[in-house]
Specification:
Elements: E1 4-7, E2 10-14, E3 18-21, E4 25-32, E5 36-39, E6 43-44, E7 53-63, E8 67-74, E9 80-86, E10 91-98
């Protein structure tokens, strides 16, 4: 997944209000809690203009036989994330990064 960096138990993702997918695509999320959110059509991750990276700080983890859910905040404070990881393959299915989601 090009939108996610994994380095010695440290996670970071591209700073973008979006769902970053395992197949190197993303869907940008626009809107806010007052007016509602819109998920735009899926595009190749290369279409994201180079943004900085945000470290992910998990504060909640839970799993079943198939998937592990990881959620928390980022180094940008007040920005949250939710990630789904395949337990068997140890690979991420998707990561939701949203600047208006304060965990």
């Amino acid at each position: 997944m090009k939108g996610l960096k994994i380095k010695e138990n440290e996670l970071s993702c591209l700073i973008e209000d979006a769902i970053l997918n395992e197949n190197d695509t993303y869907s940008r999320i626009k809107g806010n809690i007052t007016t509602g959110f819109i998920v735009e059509p899926t595009e190749p991750i290369e279409n994201i203009k180079e943004n900085d990276w945000s470290e992910l700080y998990p504060s909640l983890e839970d799993e079943n036989n198939e998937f592990k859910v990881i959620a928390g905040e980022t180094s940008w404070r007040g920005t949250g994330f939710v990630a789904i990881k395949n337990v068997e393959t140890n690979s991420f299915k998707w990561v939701l990064h949203l600047s208006t989601m304060n965990p």
